[in-house]
Amino acid sequence: MSNKVFTDATRMSDNRHESDAIVRLSGVYKRYKDFEALKDINFAVGTQEVVVIIGPSGSGKSTLIRCINRLEEHDEGRIVVDGTELSMDIRNIQEIRKETGMVFQNFNLFPHLSVLSNIAIGPRQVRNIPKAEAEALAMELLTRVKIPEQADKFPSQLSGGQQQRVAIARALAMKPKVMLFDEPTSALDPEMIGEVLDAIKELAQEGMTMVVVTHEMGFAREVADRVVFMADGEIVEVGTPSEIFDNPQEERTKKFLSQIL
Amino acid sequence: MSPLTAVSAKTPPWRDIRVLRWLFQLVVLAIVVGILYWLYSNYQVNISKSKIPTDLRFLGNPANFTFPGQEFDQSSPVRAAFVQGFYNTLRVAIAGILLSIALGTLIGMARLSKNFLVRAVSTAYVEVIRNIPLLLLLTFMNLAVVLQTFPRIEDAWKPLDLFVVSNRGIAIPWFDGSTNTLLVVIALSVVAAISVGWWRTRRSDRTGRPARSLSASLLAFIVVSVGAWMALGYSWTLPVVADRGTEGGLRLDPSFFALLVTLVIYTSSHIAEIVRGSILAVPRGQGEAADALALSHGTKMRLVILPQAFRIALPAIGNQAMNLIKNSSLGAAISYFELTQVAQITVGNGSPAVPAFTLTLVVYLCISLVTSLILNLFNRRLALVER
Amino acid sequence: MSWIRHNLFRTWWDAVLTVALGAVSVWAISSLAEFVFVTGRWEIIEVNLKLMLVGRFPEQHLWLASASVMAIAGWMAAAFGSDPRRPEDVMSMKAKLWDTTQRFGLIVLLGVTLMMLAGLQESLPVVAGIIGAIVAGRLLNLARRRMSWLKSWPGIIWHLVVVSPAVVMVSLTLLNADLELWGGFLVNFYIAIISIVLCFPLGVLLALGRKSSLPIVRLISTSYIELIRGAPLFVLLLLAGVALEFFVPPSIAPGSIFRAVTVFTLFTAAYLAEIVRGGLQSIPKGQLEAGKALGLPAWKITLMITLPQALRNVIPAQIGQFISLFKDTTLAGAALSIVEVLKVSEAITKQDDFLGKGYIYESLTFVALLFWVGSYVMSRESQRLEKKLGVGQR
Q1: DSSP secondary structure code for residue B13 in this structure
Q2: What angle do CA B269, B271, B272 make, to 5 degrees?
Q3: Against a cut of 0.90, is the pTM above it?
Q4: The domain containing residue B14 runs over which residues?
Q5: How many structural domains are present in chain B?
Q6: What percent of chain C has pLDDT over 70?
């Protein structure tokens, strides 16, 4: 019905080749009992591409991103990350989780571990890197997100913005190929959103492949290579930031943008 | 470019998550079954050596013991003794639960009183009782109070000339007639009370006039019960000292009395804490909203605070009720012939131990199951509908 | 004056209550005081103190029992409170002294009472040893917090090292002294401690099983927990008393304490499982997801993230369970004829010197005091911990 160009997000930004896709979803469906959370999702992300997903709540954006690292199980279709297909194979799942890093809306830091241990636990326990090396890496990442002095503190002693930056460092410690952000600033007080968005922007500039679900339109405009608009479980429209924000084609997109801009 | 269905044919089974899950469960099941089988085979080996029967045939044997203070023919089968024991357990359990809830609620609310002395005394009560083992309390009540302090029958205390208190038990005035009919009368009165209350509330909803349904219900209850009483020609009997016992009235066996009082004191202290906690758990805003609506203190408690507190408290109070039932098994320690004591006595008389005690356990489990089902039903009816 | 009026005599009903309760309280307290200090005939306790505390424990090994008590006291002093201090937790010396008095004053009073009953000469070395162990423990605790080379030891290693003297002493005591001769309060204490330690692995496994998504595992755990929780402890003890030997291979002849510990362990495991399950449920699901997203395998997530937090969160409830267990050890005497303290207290009233003279009051009051002080102090500590843990969470 709709123009295939807009519902099929497998076309990458102009200077990418299709086979460069590091994440590819084909014909993905996800159903909960009698409710379809994802319908015929066709979506690809190229290396070093930043894709921002926007849409109303309940549109399936979080579900989509959580399917990529198997926090949710898709019912139909294929998901391939960095050449490995996501299936019931436990080895595949582990591989994909190592190569994807996720930052959650509620930070989900481990409260009983220090900030440094939070960041180091991934490399130490999953990549079997020795303790000293892992902690050095953790310090380096903490410095990168600009809070090296918090290393020995516990998450409950940090502000929300600092906690989220620690969460970003924790995900980066695994040296992932793709970073997934699930509404990273939605749980933050307004004055702290900026510092987290800055950290994410820096990551984008350094060339990290990212899929970001967010409500921060300014951020999307600045950083995204492509913007995907989702509603009711399907991809409604895809385009560059200027295409989507300045010249939306679909009705649902126009309605959504008018409500929030 | 790619097929649209999930490809799972390539996954080798030893890495497939679904296979691994089931494999794990089967392993656990195998271990548990293995342990149970080991226990069972040990049991078989040992039993065959000792030639003790393992079935329930012993239930048909004559009991060869009597129940102190109750009529029970020695030659009745063991199964009848178990039934009598079960009945005794129910007696102390029901009386205990009702009294504990009543006393516990009172003390719980007393702990929140604005009167310093009331608060202090109730707190002392709770703090002292909660930290003493139940068996110690029971032993104290039995040995120190009932058997030691209570006088011998010749010098029995006669408070108010209505009761006779001695180390043979406590005799209270009781009515002269069949208990079953009395229960029917009580049931009828309760039905009458509820109907009247409901009718008054409906009328008040329609006309706006104060319902006073509580007073009306109470009145209905009294009218129906007293009316039935007189119609049936029941009368009271007062206990008097006669020979080495009492005549008339109802004599509460000393061990029954000791067990009941101990259970009530112990359980009420726990219920008091639950009641206090549940009233405190009602969000402060509720009381503030009620005050803002100019509700009187009594109405506020009755319509806003207590219903919510009750919802919070119900599971915990139900738990205490089940604890009381289980704790009644300690009656065996003071020779009150409830279920456990019956089991112990028959085993002493030669019944096979494992089947007898297992049967006892099964009975308690059934009581617990039934009680918790009833509680769950209550809980579900009362639960606030959540979004 | 106005305080009195406001709190005691606000309404006429209030006044009635105050007068009535006041009279009752005065009577109760004065009768109790009279009983304790004047009319009570405490010789029965003095004479039988050793019996009540340790039963017929062989004299030559008594030092082992005292040593294990000292080791346990030292361990508790060293192990608890070794979390990093936050600036707002540090108290002035005076405040700390007052706080310690509040917490342990009752125990000290009990100790003094016991010393008076036992005679200074006998009890002084034991008391000095216990105080010494506690001081040593606190010093270790301080060292752990101040000295960086000690601080760097991972928590598990530190706790294992600190608890090892206690474990060694307890094991030595168990192995050397003939179990059949044990009695008194020591038995209650040992049964409780051994049962709670042994029931931990089973309880945690049951809790994990009950929360598992695998149906068979969940069924097995739930069945066990519900069956045990529906059964009265007393009946289980009676059953074990006559039936345990049928379920073990013929070569093992289980003694009474073995039976008691078996039942208490299996029993407490079910209740502990419910407590731990509550703790597991209190962990936000997001942490599980974060662990998964990092690629941690499920068992590592449980072991390193979920369980440590869950167990720590329900420490107050675990202490409560231990207190219940401690009080329930009295049932072992009634069901299995183990000569624990309650049984002893009844038995000594039948001794020749004391028969038939109503010594049961003194005897039971003493035992009540022992249990009451122990329970009360432990539950106060757990309330304190509850407050501390609650504050720590954001």
Answers
A1: G
A2: 65
A3: no
A4: 3-50
A5: 2
A6: 93
